Amino acid sequence: MPSVPDLPTLLQAAVTAVGGVERPGQVQMAQAVERAVEREEHLLVQAGTGTGKSLAYLVPAIAHAMRTGKPAVVATATLALQAQIVDRDLPRIADALEPLVGRRPTFALVKGRSNYLCQHKLVGGFPEDDEETLLSVGSVDRERSRLGDEVVRLRAWADLTESGDRDELVPGVGNRAWRQVSVSAHECLGSRCPVVAECFVERSREAAKEVDVIVTNHSFMAIDAFEGRFMLPEHDLLVVDEAHELTDRITSTITDELTSGSVSVAARRAGKGEASARLGETVDLVADALADLPEGKLTALPERLVTTLQLVRDAARDTLSELKPDKGAEVDGGKQLALAAVDEVHDTAARVLEERELDVAWVTHDQRRGAVLRVAPMSVAMLVREKIFSERTVVLTSATLELGGTFDSVAGTIGLRGAGSPAWEGLDVGSPFDYPQQAIAYVARHLPPPARDGAAPVVFEEIEALVRAAGGRTLGLFSSRRAAEAAAEEMRRRLASDGIRVLCQGDDQMPTLVRDFASDARTCLFGTLSLWQGVDVPGPACQLVIVDRIPFPRPDDPLSSARTEAISRMGGNGFMAVSATHAALRLAQGAGRLVRRSDDRGVVAFLDSRMISARYAGFLQRSLPPFWPTTDRDLVLEALRRLDATAPEVVPVSAPGARGIGGAPLQGPAAAVPVARSPRTAVTGGHAWTDEQDEELRDGLDAGVAVEELAEHLELAPDLVTARINQLGLEVPV
């Protein structure tokens, strides 16, 4: 093993390489990571914006990997952070450390199988997708033409790419086209594949075994840990960044669903056989049994549903036996697709029937898919404790891990509290920012409590006064798409004569809206919860953040209500543990949009008087950055006017260039083409989007379906649907 200098020497070299300066919080965090590894003890570390936390964990992670010969794994929640780490931070750190450690530290990005081309599918090893399994809502001929063009381009690209990585295809293609050249993990033939030696996935994972740092995402890491697939090489250090998102991502990963359509597809793919025929006969039974059930959580399984699910489970089990290939038989891609579909139906039916203690089952009604039966764990705490914390040292970090002034809430959701919990340390390294001097937290105490039927006129008057005083420069964060649109429409009418422009989420692609907002001081951007973690606009373009109401979860959310009831039954405060904790995390993320640099100044305005009047107000306040608090409206308006008058010029934001193979910037005309977004980190407002949902979204918009109807069809809040539309760069029908 190479000789590795001490941590202070390595950190100083890395910080110099990225053009920064060492900060006390960054040094403290790096030392804590090193100490956690040495003690084999877990670490929760809250590092505020501007701390430089990625360097604070990457440098000790590299040092540990080089000393032990085992890779360190870094898991993030968002594609943006993955790109920052792989494309910006790690290359510069590696260059800086090479002279000190004797070789260049190495790293790799590991993704799920469906993100790569499948060589076997490219040469016809799998049947084409059945047209009946693809959502069709109109404009069929146009869709087929677009699909054909995209598949032709995909096949041409397949002859050129060295990695087979979907993210390197510029511009991207739709999920329907991508499915023609890729397979899921369950559909893959694995070691039995005749072209396994040429497999892009196997080659990338083999290469990852030899690197010092592996970067992946929460979902991939969870699948690797929970399903025992061993897709990641053996490691004894795991760093989870954006850790406040971890439980939502894991919950999404292990949520299952069953529909009459999924049973139909499984039976059709299985072909002709006695058992598959019996499976096909259950399709109408499933549709009828679910259609008769009201939407919402199933407190007990109705007898009819139990009987139907037993029939599905047993027929699927027998179908799997029929499909099992004979020993030594030639590998069949079509049979593997059938096995995957039938196995999923069997496992979901069996899981619901099992009625596990922590599972919650519920029914939603979908305009296109019919009734959907879903099942998810009420808590993943014990799973995380057993599968993630038991075999390695885990460092979890985020700007928002302390809620109500303590780590207890987050620690409880990931299994670090209670009997048998492993040893861990909680550390808040603070922020380099002087929050009380840089920002004001204003609560509009005089406003009435928020109503369900929309904002009162006095609320619009408050928004108008604040925005006018700020001269624009406003990021408005609203609890629903309808509220954001109503406020945007009203402010456009009221502020047009002042030359203040109001953009609203859904007007254009989100990156375009953010660039427009960041480039013009007289512009405001209004949006929903999905904006709260995705907007980073430092400088004078954003000097006012408005939060319309406390973002509690919906009262009819099955998982939230189940968690609340369970905690209350055990004598705890279910509201505080679930709803207030959820709201505190979202508020902290929203307020964190204001101060992004040491020279940022501004106001966070809460238009919900419960922030100071409710019994839980103190808990919410302790979860926020320590801004200077006030309820003095005149003082705030004067402060905003002064900031507007003295603000420096806004620096326009350039559009991002395209990235080619290996992440290198493209040159020439192709550089103007935006990079395709990857669905593997497609998460909005805590909801992880599937390929199927993305496809339904595309097809619905192409057919002119309204966003509200799509939201109802997908059983999601309209603001989440709008957020995903913006992520994918889709156009909303006028």
UniProtKB/TrEMBL annotation:
Catalytic reaction annotation: ATP + H2O = ADP + phosphate + H(+)
EC identifiers of the protein: 5.6.2.3
One family name in Pfam for this protein: DEAD
UniProt-listed InterPro entries: ATP-dep_Helicase_C, DEAD/DEAH_box_helicase_dom, DinG/Rad3-like, Helic_SF1/SF2_ATP-bd_DinG/Rad3, Helicase_ATP-bd, P-loop_NTPase
Signal peptide segment: none
Any one GO MF annotation of this record: 5'-3' DNA helicase activity
Similarity-based family: Belongs to the helicase family. DinG subfamily.
UniProt xrefs under PANTHER family: DNA REPAIR DEAD HELICASE RAD3/XP-D SUBFAMILY MEMBER (PTHR11472), REGULATOR OF TELOMERE ELONGATION HELICASE 1 (PTHR11472:SF34)
This protein's name: ATP-dependent helicase DinG
